[in-house]
Amino acid sequence: MTKWEYFITPLPLHTPGQVLNMHGEEGWELVQIASAPNGTGSVAYMKREKNQ
């Protein structure tokens, strides 16, 4: 059975692609983007397979 770890990160309005690419290089896969609770941009929900 595959085990996952999850990560939530803010996405700045001016560089969202740069942030996503940086985490993608670390093995994180984007699951969803949602509005930040405080209305100052977005947050990205990411996952990657957990090393066992």
From TrEMBL:
It comes from the Bacteria. InterPro entries: YjzH-like. This is DUF4177 domain-containing protein.
